Amino acid sequence: MGREKSRRLSGSRDFRQRLVLATLTSTPIIIKDIRAGEGGLRQHEMSLLHLLDKVSDQHVIDVNDTGTKVGYKPGVVLGGKDLEHDCGVHRGIGYFIEPLILLGLFGRSPLSIRLKGITNDTKDPSVDTFRMVTLHMLKHFGVPLEGLELKIENRGAPPRGGGEVLLRVPNINSTLKAVNWIDEGMVKRIRGVTFSTNVSPQIENRILYAARGLFNKFIPDVHIFTDHRAGLSGGLYVSSLK
């Protein structure tokens, strides 16, 4: 890691946040005692390091043989286009989208990357949540919606995945605006999506009608769309936005 003073951390907690904050603040870090005696870094954490390597330059990533210690010296977030990354099947694509959005905003050039893996599971935020909620929230912080896109090209459910999304993040030339949200407002309408892979569309329709019937007890303006696709694994999912 060189002679530059590094901040020393311990344990596997907040692994993504540590890497993102270290990158944005150009602070070298050393994380030790990562699941000592339990195999060290998990496969999805190693995949995250590989992803960081693809969008950055002039950085140093050093992992010991047991995977219990990581040294990271941040470089420059380049962004880039036509990038591709296989997220694996141990965590959802949402696990990787969160840090990518934060890093992409401060890259030297806009980011365009294709991510493959699981689009919807119970561990991580779904790609629908990012597309319908997170990206729209960013405009309140001064991020232009032009060039900010998450396109779902294929759905992927556990355990085999097979999903594919295209993420585009613009780089910003100024600092983000501070936001003070103290009023949650009233629920005026509900939008949502149901998706299914490798199951009968009739089952998806039954879920749609059941969800709509539940929401209509509280508000009349409810629209839930369907997205039935072929996939490597069977799955059903409902995502709603209020």
From TrEMBL:
Gene3D superfamilies: RNA 3'-terminal phosphate cyclase domain (3.65.10.20)
Annotated signal sequence range: none
GO molecular function list: RNA endonuclease activity
Residues of the RNA 3'-terminal phosphate cyclase domain: 10-185
Cellular component aspect of the GO annotation: nucleolus
Pfam families: RTC
GO biological process, one term: endonucleolytic cleavage of tricistronic rRNA transcript (SSU-rRNA, 5.8S rRNA, LSU-rRNA)
Name of the protein this chain belongs to: RNA 3'-terminal phosphate cyclase domain-containing protein
